[in-house]
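Worked example (supplementary).
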Amino acid sequence: MADGLSSLNSFQLDVLREIGNIGAGNAATALAKMLDKKIDMKVPQIRIMHFNEVSEVLGGAEIQVVGILLGVMGDISGSILFILDESSSQLLVNILMGNPQNAQLTYDEMTCSALKEIGNILAGSYLSALSTLTNLKIMPNVPDLAIDMAGAILSVPAIEFAKNSDTVLYIENEFTDGLDSVIGDLFLIPDDLSYSRLLHALGVE
Amino acid sequence: MVELIKVGMADLKVAQHPSVLTTLGLGSCIGIALYDCKNKTIGMAHIMLPSSQIALAQTNRAKFADTGILDLVAEMKKLGSDVRNLVAKIAGGAQMFAFTSNNESMKIGQRNAEATRAILIDLGIPLIAEDTGGNCGRTIEFSSENGMLMVKTIGLGVKYI
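After joint prediction of all chains, the assembly is encoded as:
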């Protein structure tokens, strides 16, 4: 990330987009298995945006969202953050737990554990896509959960990016079972050294 | 109706009385509010990192506690404030995720708060109130009327410091 994200060329962005694509494909398959439903995905959007815009992407800095953070270990280090808006997390948890689809979520231990598991599976899908493409060993750590203002949760990846740049890279995913759709945002946050190692492994340095 | 001025992430703003400055959804970042007791000028910065020394790119000075606070004071001087009349209040610096591994960078909220306090001491600006740490997001609103800082969280409601 030495030169900042804004210096990424279109080829490098294409590679990141492809990782997003394959990762989302894996995630959709994992979701379909977990929920025992047919799940389609839209082509993920890769965006690089300025800090000022970041908290607006989820509908405002004060909106309550669910964030699942996993540490990343192996040949690269860093973290991966998955963010779900409230209606998406409600839908996923209710399907997973066999509740009526419109049941209001209470964030008890059971729900939190289900959300962590969802984050684990989705983030794991991305990491395995990344791992396959780069031939690097990449493993997720134990997931951690926060339910709070979007701006506050997004400050976690934003601060990591802020060390070297004024922009943030994120991947927006949309999954649908035909009726309802789940929108999730994914932030891959490699540590300083890991970023160049990643690009190098992808042959786009 | 008094104008409500938004301060974004890695941003700083100053305003003359009467006005209200706000920044939304502070997590590990620090929101610093400066108040001029004499002319009621207010200033606010949304700081992301403790020091400009640790970053490779230093394009945006408002992002760091050291450069951000200096610039904020400079902007207030332009509006006729004297640094001797300034007092400070800070909020934020939370740790949003417990994060089981011993990752130093996850304690950034605490480090942001410490750096901010140290710089205020250097500048001789008294820190008269703070609401920092914990693990919740905060929205703050700062009024030029009385220098009260409203701190709003999802779980704990609204309080004034």
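Two points are worth noting when inspecting this output. The helical segments of chain A are 10-35, 51-54, 86-97, 109-134, 150-162, 192-201. Residues 10-35 of chain A form the longest helix (26 residues).
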